[in-house]
From TrEMBL:
It comes from Duncaniella dubosii. This is Glycosyltransferase. Keywords: Membrane, Transferase, Transmembrane, Transmembrane helix. PANTHER family: GLYCOSYLTRANSFERASE, GLYCOSYLTRANSFERASE 2-LIKE DOMAIN-CONTAINING PROTEIN. GO terms for molecular function: transferase activity. The chain crosses the membrane at residues 251-269, 276-295, 301-325. Gene3D superfamilies: Spore Coat Polysaccharide Biosynthesis Protein SpsA, Chain A.
Amino acid sequence: MDITKTVTDGHQAEVRPRFSVIVPVYNRIDEVRDLLDSLSRQSLKNFEVIIVEDGSTAPCLDAVREAEGIDVKYYFKENEGRSIARNYCLERAAGEYFIFFDSDCVIPPDYFSVLTRELDANPTDCFGGPDSAHESFTTTQKAINFAMTSFLTTGGIRGGKVSLEKFVPRTFNMGYSRRVYERVGGFREMFSEDIDMSTRIRNAGFSIALIRPAFVYHKRRVDFRKFLRQVYVFGMSRITLKLLYPGSLKAVHALPAIAVIIGVVLLLLSIFVSPWFLLPLAVYFLAIFVTALVSTRSVAIAAKAVPASVIQICGYGCGFIKAYFLKIILGKGRDVEEEILIRKGK
């Protein structure tokens, strides 16, 4: 089912849009409604929106039909995975640049105005921006956002910091030029496909830049169980990337796994030797709480930031350890669990 819904001034724009916004969707009707509403409020509308429904059982077509003031194209295809869905959009995009958002993003009203200004001043082939938590998000969503962006966890890079390794745009807020697409191509179907794409772009000699003012509000997972599943798979995918790019695995990527091992050792020592071995963990949890309290000014968010950070580190670390054992030590490839999650675009 291919549906083109053009609502910009009531007719199809006659000139090529500067940006093509690409959004793969899998059973996310409410998220798509919020995303399109935020795009309709942009101060500069030099973009088209292309949404592809990747075999959803609850399509978002009604949300697309409700969108006003923007050029939206909607496609429905069988479920093959989010990377294939993005490539499907790329083949149909008309823009000079391709912008990738996740369906659970809300875009600030000046995003495209800021992005246009920054690209005009400092042209680059590929770019990305940080994410933040909107005031309307739940305390759990804000706590998860803290965990995914704090320097006390593995989230420093996602939060816009580039000191630990080279900046890698993520597909919740990423873009690259048509020239990049024509040479590098589309996404590969895998977890951490954005890291893979960024690596291929950099290896092809293109420039990659962090545009800090071009941030988005990212809802992420709405509960801790889904968040755990997500970061667990992130940890597994880091080993997949190491197999694709042998030199890509850095010491910083193993820190969550090391933290898990140290945490287990401290817990065992506290049980069999002395409870004082729990002191380092207590100090770390206190640091998370205080840092979250200062940044969010909310006791409720700070309290949830502690378990969110533990989940983020332990989930990632356990996924990393499992994948390292299976794929490096035992030499096995992608497991069935990973294959199913990729296909469903989780």
